[in-house]
Amino acid sequence: MEFTAKTVEEATAEGLKSLGISESEAEIKIIEQPVKGLFGRMKGKAVVSIEKKASGAERAVKFIQELLDKMDLCAKAELSEDGENPVITLIAEFSSEVIGYRGEVLDAMQTLAGAVANIGNKVYKKVVVNCENYRERREETLIALAHRLEEKATEMKREVILEPMIPFERRIIHTALVESTTVTTRSEGKEPNRYVVIVPNDKDEFSKPYNAGRNNQNGRRNDRRDHDRKGGKGKGYKKDGRRPAKSGFTAEKKKSSSGFSFGTYLGNSLKDNK
């Protein structure tokens, strides 16, 4: 808004009073100011533009919206408050695009939003970026995982290593097991590969840790291989579980019409391949 008075000071004071804000909360621009005329008399008027400064959360939601637009994602960023923490909710046509694999895109946006919102702040204020309640659903999944691995660690009397997680997710695991009577937890490693270790109270000191993240991944790969061999829809296998012969050259050299051996001609004879 623009305010006019005889001097810049008077116009500014009038504007701040009208908006009900202090000078530190305002963005003030001088549009026009009086000039000294003949004999030192002031000519003209003072015009200032005064707007209330955007809060950190407002800056963050504007930044996220601009980011979404640059990424050509059909999504809208909306700001709400959850207690003391600002929450930026993303409403998207295709939520998977803004969430990403296990929330990687959402986590990256949350990190950037926090950095923008806390520019100039002495005390860091957390900003949450969410989409279709992903944060809540992910928390439920991690809590269930924590208790399942708590039982496994207790049963095997071995440490259980989880896959690397961001600080927010590691905190969920620690909190879920903080009152456990059979295990304790700790974090190890360096970012971005820091992970949680679940330690049974009666751990077998001679046992090796059980890597839950690695074993889960290997298990999925092995399941796919077994499925392929049993005549599933995997590529590269016949219904009887055998691989078909590869196309191209075989052990028997194919000859051209000129009588030359292709294998010898290309420098790939059977003798060379031994």
Task: Report on the architecture of this protein.
- This protein has helices at 8-19, 56-70, 95-99, 104-117, 134-156, 167-176, 212-229, 262-265, and strands at 2-5, 26-32, 35-36, 42-43, 46-52, 75-82, 85-92, 128-130, 160-161, 183-188, 195-200, 210-211.
- With 274 residues, the protein is of the alpha+beta class.
- Strand 10 (183-188) and strand 11 form a beta hairpin.
- Helix 2 (56-70) packs across helix 4 and helix 5 (134-156) crosses helix 6.
- Residues 216-243 and 245-274 have low confidence and may be disordered.
Question: What's the short story on this structure?
Answer:
By secondary structure, the protein is α+β, with helices and mostly antiparallel strands. Helix content is 37%, strand content 21%.
Helix/strand-derived class? alpha+beta
* Global geometry: elongated
| Strand order, largest beta sheet | 10-11-9-12
* pLDDT averaged residue by residue: 80
- Note the beta-strand portion: 15-25%
Note poorly predicted spans: 216-243, 245-274
Largest sheet composition? 4 strands, mixed
Rg: 33 Å
Percent range of helical residues:
25-40%
